[in-house]
Amino acid sequence: MFFGVIVRTLFTLILFVLIGLIVLFPAQSQDTQPVIRQEQLESITAIVDNAIHEGKIPGAVLLIGNQGKVVYRRAFGFRALRPKKLCMTEDTIFDIASLTKVVATTTAVMQLIEEGKLQLDAPVARYWPAFKANGKGGITVRELLTHYSGLRPDLKLKHKWSGYRKAMKMIVAEKPVYPPGTSFTYSDINFEVLGELVRRASGKPLNVYCAERIFKPLGMIDTGFKPSPALQDRIAPTQYRKGEVHDPTCHNMGGIAGHAGLFSTADDLSVFSQILLNGGSIHGVRLLSPPIVEEMTIPQSPPTKAKLRGLGWDIDAPFASNRENLFQVGSYGHLGYTGTAIWIDPITHTYIILLTNRVHLGGGGDVKELRAKIKKIVADALGPLSSEQVLIRRPLLKNYYELMKRYAVQDKSD
């Protein structure tokens, strides 16, 4: 365990040095970045309209950015279907569900790691001693962020309970299902714990910390937990009461949690996406350092594990028309249960933000096919990429690419 911490510490130091060199001395190459033209995205309209016509979503807001500019921004359908129909608008505020994990909680945790108030490979119990009960003493901050903690998906909802403190007591009573670092289980508990770590390390509740350190500095004026009554007319209703978080555990916790509860707009998430593509800064505001942004968006799962996760973020192939031929690393993103999605591709300097309230349809609806079709249209607009181009644009992926090549050779020889 101690040797592993030393290795990871050395890797982090090397990572920071390499990022610094890359920023100071960018690779000399004739490689050019693909630019999306608006006419290449015209077919999106029919695809979204068809999803609405089929009853899969009541409406949507879609925003696409490329090379530092918004190249597509449009509202479709209806924000609400009952008690009366209300047209969707581009400034509609959505319950973004699990996007909370990356927009709020992961960002806050990475800021605190950068400041030395949290350590990535430290046991959670260092900051929350009671957490170690019931075999959780070995779980690290990294394992929470990558969903390799061994904790189960969520707290029990069978019996009625309420309150943030009650949730924390229930987490202390939890027992891991798997030993830490051995198995991937997407777990809301992981981020409920991380939200508590933000409070303990910063001295401020998660919602207050994020408002002061993330949303206000970036001008994300419509982003936050428990939206003001003054914003009610712009909020897309979910399955329950408008303006209240849809996630039942977060609702029981009072509407503020590390895994859900955040409300936002496509425009605010566009600012957030662009700052990550910029390496952590925008318009003179620094959110994170370039090495921290890079570290959290490359594979951080335990070695040899097939399920790839960054720190908080899911990992996917770059946006490219031949993406099925590329290793599944390059872009990163996250999905939200209410029908939200955000994907960011530093290889092509592109991001996609899709916001819907699919659960407004009696708790149903489906956006899986819609997301896939939109990503394909964007990928086709960007054209193909080679592995060499990917590595020119994200050199720190080289070790991963080499590892995947070795695995591919082994698979063929077996």
Describe what you observe in this structure.
The chain has helices at about 1-25, 45-55, 100-115, 140-145, 165-175, 190-200, 205-220, 250, 265-275, 290-295, 370-380, 385-395, 400-414; strands spanning about 60-65, 70-80, 85, 95, 225, 260-265, 280, 285, 315, 330-335, 340-345, 350-355. Helix content is about 35%, strand content about 15%. It is built from 13 helices and twelve strands. Helix 1 crosses helix 10 and helix 3 crosses helix 7. A hairpin with a 5-residue loop joins strand 2 (about 70-80) and strand 3 (about 85). The chain has about 425 residues and is an alpha+beta fold. The chain is globular, with a radius of gyration of 21 Å. A seven-stranded antiparallel β-sheet has the order 3-2-1-12-11-10-9. A three-stranded antiparallel β-sheet has the order 4-6-5. Residues about 15-30 and about 410-414 have low confidence and may be disordered. The longest helix has 23 residues, at about 1-25.
List keywords for this structure.
13 helices, alpha+beta, 414 residues, three-stranded antiparallel β-sheet, disordered C terminus, seven-stranded antiparallel β-sheet, globular, single chain
In short:
With 414 residues, this protein is α+β, with helices and mostly antiparallel strands. It contains 13 helices and twelve strands.
